[in-house]
Write a structure and sequence with these properties.
The protein is mainly alpha-helical and 342 residues long. The chain is 65% helix and 6% strand. It is built from 9 helices and 3 strands, in the order H-H-H-H-H-H-H-H-H-E-E-E. It has a 3-stranded antiparallel sheet, with no helix packed on it. The longest helix is centred in the middle third of the chain and has 53 residues.
Length: 342
Amino acid sequence: MWRSRAFFSFSARWTLIGVSRDIEFDIRNDLLKRLLILEPEFYVRNRTGELMSRATNDLNAVRMVLGPGIMYHRDDHHHNDHGHPGDGHALAFLTLWVLLPAPVVAVAVWFFGKNDSRPVRTNSAALATLTARVQENLAGVRVVRAYAQEEAEIRGFDAPNRELRLANIRLIRTWSMFMPSLQALIGTTFLIVLWQGGHQLFRGQISLGALIAFNGYLTLLVWPMIALGWVTNIFQRGAASMGRLNYILTAEPNIDDRHAKVPEGAKPRGEIEFRHLTFTYPTTLSGAGANGASKSNGSCPHPVLRDIHLKVPAGSTLAIVAHGQRQDHPRRSYRASLGGAR
């Protein structure tokens, strides 16, 4: 009996974990395909480190839902379906007493799940911001050292690092109350068994062996109740991470040139003319926010270029030099509002 149960349990785990890896592989491919068709402005509003965090940490959280999350959720129902003893009418009254904490468990799971979603999203966003900061410093370490900006970058790293630490503390504070609550409910259930079962034993309504067997069956329910808290945590993290992945998967390129075709035999002209050009930066001075949708400098009523006209002949080069300084990557591309261009 135990051999067949072990075999089927191993087969189920092998299948679920394998399927979760396959789905992770497919989602990663979908992310790459979407990133390849997006315009340069998308990578201005969303820093490389943040995209890396979404493609690694968030994708792993989604895989945990599809694999271990579903697996332990199935085991939870399996134990709940087969863990209750059935010793006739003698233990029916005791079983009803044992089931009294069940609604309390449901309310506790709902309450902590509802209040846990925001800390999970905040923690994921803080981790993405820190990852972006590290990636930018590693990629631009030559510039940082050339201009002796080590101390300034260390101070700049301290702020997102502290934000991540505080986000983790808030998340841990929430779950530090959840698991002890479940343990208290489990202990309450065993106290109920000893209390009511002891009364029935003294009255001769049940035997000592039946009470011991009932207590043993109740022990089988301890793991599902503990797994319930862990599965709830996995599903909350997975839901928040899937929302962050959908931000990339549902992003549409602002430049769609799939239907732009050059007539056969026609030679493209190199002359460019702009009319009524208005330009604003699409990101804040410190870069995009952690959720990839931070407020843009483009909403400022004073754009850096306003209603200009210019014509660039073929084979020539045009440079626009600003009076102020903007701390951003000099080779990034930005969108501009055009009244007309050809």
